[in-house]
Design a protein that fits this description.
Helices cover 37% and strands 14% of the residues. By secondary structure, it is of the alpha/beta class.
């Protein structure tokens, strides 16, 4: 093992954590351990990837690359030449992770529960893959492979994802809240065991509890939320607060277990209420004449359309009411049915030959029905494609909320204005960032002489919490400055900063920069930033698709978290 002259580095990830909650709660004395790190170290709002999605954000954290280079934009991507989707894992990502580079340099690393890390890399140390792992018994969940069985025997059951969506769909919110804290405790027990028994220079552990609590319980905490119910708030209004309190205790325990280590506390994006603009995009495109529904061709639905609607209703009932194990057995008995139903439901009733643009429903972006890319593409590449994107972006900026009449779009951009690299063509054609001052009740473009449309009833949403552009970054240690707040850092800056702290050269393809302002001047003076020589590390692995059963597990997990419609 290489002797580390810098001391050890402990990285604690709190998925979705936001300074909007942390700073006031820390100032009030509710988060004493995080407050101590803030006082003794450097903090900064951490800018996430443009779409604030966890899959590309954690991938950019791991590689220092923007999504246009590492090629991950969501937890799934559209299969080329089809309207179907496939779920992604680490094998689809390009670029070397910083823990791999540290391993190759002789450092011992431990990595636990980082999203998009399945299958686990054969590091110099140990690794447990994240939520893209189908299960704890899946090949590739742990490195070394026997580690999973050892943990089960000596520590107890490990929870990849506690199945909260299933409890929420069944109306068992109290059980969902309990599972959040149970998962924290199980992951902490595993971490304490490995920290104490395995040598390490880098220990990286991610908790997803903050993100889960915010997705499902934001409305209970926020009296201004349209779905806020005082009776429900009396029971669940402190779930998010208690989650942060418990994780503050966890931070204290982990720091105490490694008192010599420099500490990095970070999140992949921030949190807030779910603006819900994405769910109106296809109807908005239809109002513009850019998307056509099959029902527009005939006065009554066709037999095929009625069948799809009926099967979709049956599928949703099955999804809502049956336990996860039963659904997995059905997938094994009826291979291929899930994928076909998901595709039909995602784009139910779209008349593709008469459609020029469409949206996925759970994503804040728009895709062009491009000839040569989509199977029934209607828009020609080149001038027609560019003019259509210009038209849509212009109309997005004119769009208003039906409830308030106020603009809803903060930024709408072409993909090449947002990303850079040879994987940009995998990104959606237009990206949207909604304003964060209101929950959107519907989209319309004002027309002279026409009244504002009526406000539709607000349909309940399990995912009443959403993401925000800035997560958190806190660094504390002997080489870190004290009590400093930086204006901003990027999630892509963390990988190069970590490599720099271990005195390793930086791969030239990294988009992030070293946060030298976070270190004491004497430390920086004796440690210049160095560029690595030789070829780039962008080859990546060959993407390995999930089988039907594993894909069903991943799909249910992601739908419950709001990543899949």
């Amino acid at each position: 093992m290489k002797e580390d002259q810098s001391g050890r580095l402990l990285i604690i990830g709190l998925d979705g954590a936001t300074f909007d909650l942390i700073r006031p709660w820390a100032a009030a004395g509710h988060l004493p351990n995080i407050a101590r790190l803030l006082a003794e170290g450097v903090s900064a709002p951490l800018r996430s990837v443009p779409n604030m999605n966890s899959a590309p954000a954690w991938s950019s954290f791991a590689t220092g690359l923007n999504p246009g280079q590492h090629g991950i934009f969501y937890f799934y991507e559209q299969v080329p030449g089809t309207y179907t989707k496939r779920y992604l894992n680490a094998s689809f990502r390009r670029g070397a992770t910083f823990w791999r580079l540290l391993s190759e340099a002789g450092h011992r690393v431990g990595v636990i529960n980082v999203p998009l890390t399945y299958p686990a890399e054969p590091v110099n140390g140990f690794m447990l893959a994240g939520l893209d792992t189908p299960g704890v018994d899946s090949p590739g969940f742990s490195h070394p492979p026997e580690l999973a069985a050892r943990l089960r025997a000596e520590v107890g059951e490990y929870t990849i994802e506690p199945g909260i969506p299933g409890y929420m769909k069944g109306g068992r919110r109290d059980e969902a809240a309990a599972r959040i804290f149970e998962a924290i405790d199980r992951r902490l027990a595993c971490a304490r065991y490995l920290m104490a028994r395995e040598p390490w220079d880098l220990f990286l552990l991610v908790f997803t509890a903050t993100d889960a609590a915010q997705h499902f319980f934001w409305k209970d905490m926020d009296p201004s939320h349209p779905e806020h119910d005082p009776a429900e708030a009396a029971r669940f209004g402190e779930v998010i607060f208690r989650t942060y309190r418990r994780l503050d205790e966890v931070v204290g325990e982990l720091c105490a277990a490694a008192p010599d280590a420099t500490v990095m506390l970070m999140s992949d994006h921030g949190g807030g209420f779910n603006q819900r603009g994405a769910e109106y995009l296809n109807d908005w495109l239809a109002d513009l004449g850019l998307l056509s529904w099959l029902s527009q061709r005939q006065s009554t639905p066709s037999a095929r359309e009625l069948l799809i609607r009926f099967l979709g209703w049956v599928y949703r009932q099955v999804d809502r009411r049956l336990p996860r194990e039963t659904k997995q057995r059905l997938v094994r008995l009826l291979p291929g049915v899930r994928e076909r139903m998901e595709t039909a439901m995602a784009f139910e009733g779209i008349d593709w030959p008469r459609t020029r643009a469409y949206a996925f429903g759970a994503r804040d972006d728009i895709l062009i029905n491009l000839a040569g890319r989509e199977p029934q593409g209607t828009v020609q590449p080149g001038r027609e494609y560019e003019e259509l994107r210009d038209f849509i972006i212009d109309r997005l900026y004119r769009t208003r909320d039906v409830a308030s009449g106020e603009p809803v779009v903060e930024v709408a951009q072409r993909r090449e204005e947002v990303y850079a690299g040879n994987r940009v063509e995998r990104a959606p054609d237009i990206l949207i960032r909604w304003r964060t001052d209101r929950l959107i009740r519907g989209l319309y473009i004002p027309q002279e002489g026409q009244p504002r449309p009526s406000v539709p009833p607000l349909s309940p949403s399990l995912n009443n919490g959403g993401h925000r552009p800035h997560g958190i970054l806190i660094l504390a240690g002997p080489e870190i400055r004290r009590g400093l707040i930086l204006p901003e850092a990027s999630i892509m800056d963390l990988a190069p900063t970590i490599l720099y702290r271990f005195d390793l050269p930086l791969p030239g393809e990294m988009d992030g920069r070293v946060l030298t302002d976070a270190f004491v001047p004497a430390y920086v003076a004796g440690r210049p930033v160095r560029a690595a020589e030789g070829e780039a590390h962008l080859s990546g692995l060959d993407g390995v698709d999930y089988d039907e059963e594993d894909a069903a597990v991943i799909e249910e997990r992601l739908r419950g978290m709001g990543y899949v419609e």
